[in-house]
Design brief:
Keywords: Metal-binding, Zinc, Zinc-finger. This is SWIM-type domain-containing protein. The protein is an alpha+beta fold. Among the domains are: 83 residues, no CATH class; 52 residues, no CATH class. The chain has six helices and six strands; from the N terminus they run αββββαααββαα. The chain has a four-stranded antiparallel β-sheet. It has a two-stranded antiparallel ribbon with strand order 5-6. A hairpin with a 4-residue loop joins strand 3 and strand 4. The chain is flat and about 90 Å long. The protein starts with 9 loop residues before the first helix and ends with a helix. It binds zinc ion. The site of zinc ion (ZN) has 8 residues, from helix 2 and helix 3.
């Protein structure tokens, strides 16, 4: 690292270069003191160069200039490195790693405190079936979910209660009687208005 020539760390150079390429579409206009207005596509941003602040929020958050701030720096013909936080510079990196890491001996050389062995905490099994599916967070890509659609014979009454009619209808005499009986049990009473509507719909469907 000491032989490295750049003032900023290599990773930071790469990130700033990415922003510099985007800044080609930014057009900065000087306003008052250190304030600039930057037009970027169909949007406008305000940059406070001395405060390292941009209305897009990136400059003050990441510690190096965003594409809007870079266009202002280019307009003023100033150095980009002056607007990058010191922690991203080579000097800071060398300072952090200047001190070595002290060697540590193994467990056999530990001093006995005389307080005994500390046991791990008791695992308490919570009630209910343990979850096997991982709980997804907001960043996970959602998979396809099955949406159950009602068959065309299902209907809603005035109260909003859905009467579910199974799609499988006894179309042949080979159907076992028990299945037909089960289907009849799901139908509303024959003298009801809903039953008449169902019959009418079935006739229209199979006409
Ligand atoms: Zn910005």
């Amino acid at each position: 690292m000491e032989r490295y020539q750049g003032a900023l760390c290599a990773n930071m150079e790469k990130k700033i270069e990415q922003q510099r390429v985007i800044s080609r579409n930014c057009f900065a206009t000087w306003g008052v003191e250190d304030r600039f207005e930057v037009q970027h596509h169909m949007d406008n941003h305000v940059v406070y160069l001395n405060d390292h602040h941009c209305s897009c929020g990136m400059f003050q958050m990441v510690g190096y200039p965003c594409c809007h701030a870079l266009s202002c720096i280019a307009l003023m013909r100033e150095e980009i490195n002056d607007y990058v936080d010191d922690c991203f510079k080579k000097d800071a990196y060398l300072k952090v790693y200047n001190h070595g890491i002290n060697p540590v001996s193994g467990m056999l050389d530990y001093e006995d405190s005389g307080l005994g062995v500390v046991d791990p905490p008791h695992v308490r099994i919570m009630p209910g079936r343990p979850k096997k599916v991982r709980r997804r967070d907001a960043n996970d890509i959602r998979g396809h979910t099955m949406v159950q659609k009602c068959p065309p014979l299902c209907s809603k009454d005035a109260k909003g209660t859905t009467t579910f009619i199974p799609t499988r209808t006894p179309m042949s005499v080979d159907d076992p009687p028990s299945a037909i009986e089960r289907l009849k049990a799901t139908l509303p009473p024959e003298n009801s208005k809903l039953y008449q509507q169902l019959v009418l719909r079935t006739v229209i469907t199979f006409w």
